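Quick one:
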Amino acid sequence: MPNYAEYHPTGVTIVKGVPLVDFSFHDEDYDYETVDKSESGLIVPERKLIVGHLNDGVAELILEIKKRHNLIHDIDPRQFEEIIAHVFKNNGFVVDLTKRSRDGGRDVIALRNDMGIPCKYIIECKKYAPQNKVGVGLVRSLFGVQMNEGANKAILATTSEFTAGAKKFAATKHTAEWFLDLKDYNHVMDWILKDQG
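Output:
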C-alpha cells in the first residue's frame, strides 16, 4: 500500500473513522496484471481513511501531478516507481514492479510482444531533487545490468537531470546508443501528461 494521500477517490470504498494503522509493502513483486485489486489499497493518515484499489490510487496521483507538476518532487521513491510502472502498463506492456530491497539494479521490468518479437525493458527509477543530477556511475551500472540480463533496452528515469558524463556514456556509438535511454524530468512529465489511464 503506498503512502501518498488520495484526494479525489473514485470508484472505491472509503471507511471513515479508522484509527492510524501501521502498514508496509508485502515482500513480493507487484504485477499490475495479476494483483488482487480487492486487497490493494492505501491509507490516508491526515483524514484517517482507507481507500481501496492500488491502480486507482496511482491514477489519481498522476491526475494530481498533471494539475501541479511540482508534486512529483514531493512523492517518495516508491511512488515514483509505481507511476513509471503504471505509465508503461498503459502503453501496452506487461509490467512487474520489483521488490524494494532487492531490485537487482532495476525497479521495473516491462515486457511486450511487437510483431511476434518479444521485447524486454528494464527501468531504473531515481526520484531525485531537481539540483541532484544523476551521474555516469548509475548509468554504467544500469548498462551492466542490462547486458547481464539480455534485456532489449535499459531506461533510467529520473525527476532530475543527468550530468554531461552520463549523457556522453549513453550516447556512445556501438555500445550504449541502441541499448540505453536516459529520461529526465521533462521526458517523465511528458509521459505523465500523455497518460490516459
